[in-house]
Amino acid sequence: MSNNDDYAGKYKLVSVKLKNADGNEADIRLIIKEIQIHESINMTFALYSFHIIDAVMLLENLGVTGSEQITLEILLKDTDTLKTIELSVIDYGGYSRPNNQSQTYTITAINQTAMNASVKRISTGVNGSACGILQDLYSEIDQKNPITLEDAADEGNFGGIIPNLTYRDAFAYLISKAQTTNNGMFFFYETIWNGQVINSFENMISSDIIGKYSLNDGAESGQDSDFNESIAYKIKSIQSDFGLSAFKTFKEGGATSKTHMIDISTKEYTEYFFDISKDDMPSFSKDYVVSDNYHIDLADTEGAYFVSNRNVKAYDGKFENFSQHTDTSLYKKRALLSNLYAMSHTIDITGSDSLSSGKTLEIALQQATDPTIVDVHHDEMLSGNYLITEVVHKFNDNGVYYATVTIKKDSFDRKLMMRGGIF
After folding, report:
1. Cα–Cα distance for residue pair 190/401, rounded to 1 Å
2. What's the pTM?
3. Is the pLDDT at 2 greater than 50, yes or no?
4. Is 59 buried (19+), middle (13-18) or exposed (0-12) by CB count in 10 A?
């Protein structure tokens, strides 16, 4: 995190140059109220929003037509990190005129690679690993910025036709086919500090934490002294959501499911039953929402079902089929996504160049009770390691950088929760 606490969360907006189709440009940083950059492991590309208070008639004087480009330069003062991002404007929205002296609106933009990927289409045959094919296709529209490969070692072969999809849709299609040796899923997403990233779920949850964050001043009983008490690690506010619902977990295939597989070459039909209590699954903690001693026998349930085709004779001896391991990866990927909502928080914290979707962090919360009545202790149920699934980076006009971060985990320590009187 920050190596100079005096500058934690402080930034300088070096320039924000808006250029029109004729090549005329204006530096608009002085009329920007706030910049918000929204990234997520579930979004292929980030979304950039510039909230404007305009008293200089920028839209009229610059001759805005909707085809503008933006060059954004941000300097973080604590780490001297300078980030330059080339953007394409996709919308001018939220326009209003509170009085005759000013107008307000929001400029929405995406990076230029995202723009190209959204409008250019591809029709081609592909053969190889899904992550490898994705990297090759990405290099066709962006030769300057390579993908950050946190984990791109996917298993199996993918072969087939990409049928006139946009590059963006092709990326989403390919990453959905990628899988680890344990049939885990991959993500392809943009972060403002690390660019485009390919990463697996297993690698995400096993990575080192970026920091330990606390909601209080570190003074509660049982507080881990290893938690940094500087402003860079403070949780300013928190909203929590418990996904501890066995009903929802069952309905979404998080506990059990069945895949109906038909081989179109041999005319064979096979069923694959998934039981989370028996299959090896990567997870944060020990227990999922639904356990093997649940009062409903998991063997008697079918939370979700899938129908899929395969063709074992699609290749002449070199590969088994065009989408290997589809039979097992379908239900495991669904289960991983369903269980990821077991517990989640949305927190406001100080911004940092180490703060990115796909990273992990640790939080420390105290028990929700009145310290004047009983001793307040460390809340072991809600505290712990979480995966950062979404970040909204916010740069306001006071030079302060903060972020609203969504963090999730898929499991917990059931014995700990029962000991604490939760169940």
Report:
1. 19
2. 0.88
3. no
4. middle
